[in-house]
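Hello,

Our lab assistant flagged a job as stuck in the queue for most of the afternoon. It eventually completed. Since we weren't sure the result was trustworthy after the delay, we are filing this so someone can double-check. Below is the sequence as submitted and the structure that was eventually returned. Let us know if re-running is recommended.
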Amino acid sequence: MTTPDSKDFVAGVGSDARKAPVRVAFVTRRTSAQVKAFDEPKLQSFPEVLFRAAIAIEILASALVLISLFFNAPLEGLADPSHTPNPAKAPWYFLGLQELLHYFPPVVAGVLVPTLVVLALIVIPYFNINIEAAGLFTKDRDKRLKIFWGVSVLFCVFLLIFDVIVALVPTVITVGLMAIAATTPESSPSAFRRSLAAKPLSFWIMSWFLFELVVLTAVGTVFRGPGWAWVWPWSGAGGIR
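-- returned structure --
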């Protein structure tokens, strides 16, 4: 066929339906018909992506070296068994777990909670995969709202029973934002609310996890003094150690 509007059909041999838009095609045994083909953006992982990663690593290393030249590391003197610090704080990346130890038994805070968090981060991406990245409440809204409110109320009650207020505050804020997303129509004039409504479940879980991690680490770093008591940073009894 010479043109799309022509009525003169010409039989030919080929395997590319886009290059040769014919009405009838004869496919030989040595070729295969290319029915579906999509031109997707591609980027070779080597050397382009590897080169970018190397540049990012070098920039980060240079920044860390420059910071170390102007700021001393927050290290104290040699450990002395006869003069233990009060409070004895873990490194900053473990202060979140140390803060949980203030509320829960060691087995719960040191073993069960980290294990459940790691397992959740591994399993959740494979549970009810959202290929379209649609909002959490865009499908089966009534059913998901019931599950959402039930889990949220039970979890908040659990935190109240153990008096974990520092973990309850980020949870309540996250639940409030999710409630806004659940009540936001698609035609909402607010771009912020439309953005919240378009977030999938994975976004909310990861956001809550990071929010909790930051808050627990900040409380353990700044607001804990002798005996792991709550102190204000400006009182001089606690602060960063």
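-- support follow-up --
The delay was a queue issue, not a problem with the job. The result is valid. DSSP finds seven helices and two strands in the chain. The first helix runs from residue 45 to 70.
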